[in-house]
Design goal:
With 320 residues, the chain is mainly α. Helix content is 74%, strand content 0%. Helix 2 runs antiparallel to helix 3, helix 3 packs antiparallel against helix 4 and helix 9 runs antiparallel to helix 10.
Length: 320
């Protein structure tokens, strides 16, 4: 009997279970999720929702591809940067279907936040809805494209997303945790620099800051796991900052439309003056509150930020 037990024990040791599969890198998982988000939006029937969803997915993908673009492997880094540029190019072609909705949201915001009279809001809305009233450099928000809002771009989009989807595992595997922290800190430092000398009256510098905040907001999702309670709050505050800067930019577009609207000899339309005054007041509040939030979120110097991220991730790794 003892010999048989010994034999059984030996067999149990010899027939050990196969090793557990290695989980994919965090960046790979995030890239696949963002890719899926964009693909799901492509299938939406509502043109505005479809374009909004695709562009949102693209922004997340571009933020993550910026990290992949720092990979040591030159071919991976080149592919990440090329993919990011291609997504940016496509997103610009899809912006038109979202313009009208953003304009309406900006007008509603002025009514709610600075007391723009509803009659002025309606008059401006009607005027902007007329064809041929566009600011220089701003595309006219024409009719929504068919086929889920992507219209003639659908075939190219499908091909682009298919090719990108096949490349994601390789792109995401280009960074280990140490390299990921380095890339995150570089993104943090870039966003911090973008806001340090921003003039609240300078639309362009605020818009550039917004681009960096959008990237940082999606990138920081990758380290939420290290301390979920703090990580979720941090990402939420980055989203708040993004929203404030986004509203400021939408009002800049609205102001350009109003300023380009023809003025008759008698000074009419009267809504133009009141709308511009409301935009100025709202933008001033948005800029000041956004820069205050920016100062809190980016108070740490990059090296201190790196030490904190490294400590959080090391603590999680040591307890596995």
């Amino acid at each position: 009997m003892p010999d048989k037990l010994s034999d059984s024990a030996a067999e149990a040791v010899d027939s050990s279970l196969p090793p557990l599969p290695v989980p994919p890198p965090r960046l790979t998982v995030a890239l696949i999720e963002a890719h899926g988000e964009a693909c799901e939006a492509l299938a939406l029937a509502d043109p505005v929702k479809a374009v909004h969803g695709v562009r949102k997915g693209f922004k997340r993908l571009r933020a993550l591809l910026r990290l992949a673009g720092t990979a040591r492997e030159r071919e991976v880094a080149h592919l990440a940067r090329a993919s990011r540029r291609a997504l940016a190019h496509t997103a610009r072609h899809l912006a038109q279907a979202r313009d009208a909705a953003a304009r309406e949201d900006a007008l509603d915001d002025l009514v709610a936040k600075v007391g723009l009279a509803p009659t002025i809001r309606r008059a401006a809305g009607r005027a902007f809805a007329k064809p041929g009233i566009d600011a220089p450099g701003i595309d006219a928000p024409g009719a929504s494209a068919p086929d889920g809002g992507v219209g003639a771009h659908r075939a190219a989009l499908d091909a682009q997303m298919d090719a990108l989807g096949k490349a994601l595992p390789r792109l995401g595997a280009g960074l280990d945790d140490k390299a990921l922290i380095t890339a995150l800190v570089a993104g943090y430092a870039k966003a911090r620099r973008a806001g340090r000398d921003v003039d609240p009256q300078d639309d362009e510098s605020l818009h550039e800051l917004r681009k960096e905040v959008v990237a940082q907001r999606y990138q920081m999702e990758l380290v939420v796991f290290a301390w979920p309670a703090l990580g979720h709050i941090w990402v939420d505050q980055l989203q708040r900052l993004r929203d404030k800067l986004g509203k400021h930019h939408d009002l800049s577009v609205l102001r350009a439309l109003a300023e380009a609207h023809p003025v008759r000899a008698d000074g009419k339309p009267l809504w133009r003056t009141q709308l511009l005054a409301a935009i100025e007041a709202r933008q001033e509040k948005l800029a000041l509150s956004a820069l205050l939030l920016y100062a809190r979120l980016f108070a740490e110097k990059p090296m201190a930020f790196r030490r904190r991220l490294s400590a959080y991730m090391s603590a999680v790794s040591e307890r596995k």
